[in-house]
Amino acid sequence: MHAQYTPERSIFKRSTSAHRALSEGTADRIELAHTDSDADAWLEPALSDFISLASSVCGTPMGMFSQLHADIGLQHPYLSVNNGRGDARNQWWRFPGQTGVLRNAVDFSLCEMAACTPGQITEVNDLSSDLRFATSALARGNPAVRFYAGVPLVSGNGDTLGTLCVMDREPRTLTPAQRDAFQKLARQLEAQIDSHRAMQKLEQQTMTDALTGIGNRRSFDSRLREEWTRHLRNARPLTMLMVDVDYFKQYNDTYGHPAGDALLVQLARVLRSPLRASDFLARYGGDEFSLILPDTDETGAMQVSDRIKKAVARVKWPHTDIEISLGAATVTPSEMCDFSALLHAADQAMYQRKHGRNPRNA
Question: Which residues are catalytic?
Answer without folding.
Answer: 287
